[in-house]
């Protein structure tokens, strides 16, 4: 909607190139020139008719990822400001890039309601809980809110991740998690049961993000529930994502204090990473936590619990699901599937 006012009065495809040219000159809508006039016109017509295709999480994260991995950090968006910093020492072979997100905006829109189970409970694919619409007729607008904040973006080395995924031990661990995913969906009569499993890459990134959130909350004094995550782990022909954002965006002052950006600087992030990985090796609930088999109780996590990996559900994009410490660091039960074997 930020750019709709520039295109709402256009009457034909021929007017789109001129509008794009004017926007580039004024710098009003950064990045609009990356799209063809035909694609923009198709979007205009879909917006006017209300017949646009349903947008998935992957559709939203794709453009975000392209901005985050741009070789030249974006610094002229009105709601987004980033700065590239050095990768922490000792993690050069694992981490490819770190960005300090000094300014970002999060927009949430209310589309409908579910009972008992949230939409993400379906595991991301296939049938999910029935969503009740906001009104009997299709609404012309929905309630939404926006908050501003700051964060840290970490991009991991694609080659290191790909080699780790090919490990026999990682594939065996992933198979157990996949079995728990199938059992969970079967118990809720969601078909097909294989749909929606995010993969080992997602589980590792998701678990590490949780470990860092817990460490950041201890270090910087932020309210832990105000720190959130956004995981990028889609793999397709056009792009392979491998990273996450840890950010704080709250209506109060927690979102703009600057403490999270300060902790993203190389010397601070290195210390936090080392501390988070060391804490994750042993859980106060071990060996029960480390030995947890998701296939036996049809759960969506393995070596993870409230004592070591869980965060507030408002902080987690998956409701504390798809977590396994063994994918990140060696544990009592599984010492060979870790992405950081020497932590």
From TrEMBL:
One Pfam family from the record: MZB
InterPro entries assigned: DrmB, MZB
Tree of life domain: Bacteria
Residue ranges constituting the MrfA-like Zn-binding domain according to the UniProt record: 208-308
NCBIfam families, per the entry: DrmB_fam
UniProt name for this protein: Sulfate ABC transporter substrate-binding protein
Origin species: Pseudomonas kuykendallii
Lineage: Bacteria, Pseudomonadati, Pseudomonadota, Gammaproteobacteria, Pseudomonadales
């Amino acid at each position: 909607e930020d750019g709709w006012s520039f295109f709402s009065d256009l009457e034909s495809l021929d007017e789109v190139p001129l509008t794009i040219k004017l926007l580039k000159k004024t710098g009003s809508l950064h990045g609009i020139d990356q799209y063809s006039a035909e694609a923009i016109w198709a979007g205009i017509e879909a917006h006017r008719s209300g017949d646009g295709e349903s947008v998935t999480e992957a559709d939203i994260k794709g453009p975000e990822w392209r901005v985050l991995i741009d070789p030249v950090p974006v610094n002229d968006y009105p709601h987004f400001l980033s700065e590239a910093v050095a990768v922490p020492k000792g993690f050069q072979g694992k981490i490819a890039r770190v960005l300090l997100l000094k300014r970002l905006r999060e927009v949430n829109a209310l589309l409908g309601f579910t009972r008992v189970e949230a939409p993400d409970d379906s595991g991301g694919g296939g049938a999910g809980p029935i969503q009740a619409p906001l009104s009997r007729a299709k609404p012309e607008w929905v309630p939404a809110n926006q908050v501003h904040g700051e964060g840290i973006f970490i991009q991991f080395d694609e080659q290191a991740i790909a080699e780790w995924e090919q490990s026999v031990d990682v594939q065996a661990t992933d198979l157990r998690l996949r079995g728990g995913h199938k059992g969970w969906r079967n118990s809720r009569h969601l078909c097909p049961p294989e749909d929606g499993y995010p993969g080992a890459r997602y589980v590792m990134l998701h678990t590490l993000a949780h470990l860092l959130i817990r460490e950041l909350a201890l270090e910087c004094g932020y309210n832990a529930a105000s720190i959130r995550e956004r995981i990028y782990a889609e793999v397709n022909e056009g792009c392979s994502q491998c990273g996450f954002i840890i950010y704080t965006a709250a209506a109060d002052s927690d979102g703009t204090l600057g403490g999270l950006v300060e902790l993203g600087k190389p010397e601070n992030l290195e210390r936090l990473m080392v501390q988070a990985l060391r804490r994750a090796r042993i859980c106060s609930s071990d060996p029960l936590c480390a030995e947890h088999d998701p296939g036996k109780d049809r759960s969506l996590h393995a070596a993870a619990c409230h004592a070591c990996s869980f965060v507030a559900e408002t902080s987690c994009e998956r409701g504390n699901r798809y977590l396994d410490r063994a994918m990140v660091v060696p544990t009592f039960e599984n010492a060979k599937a870790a992405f950081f074997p020497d932590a």
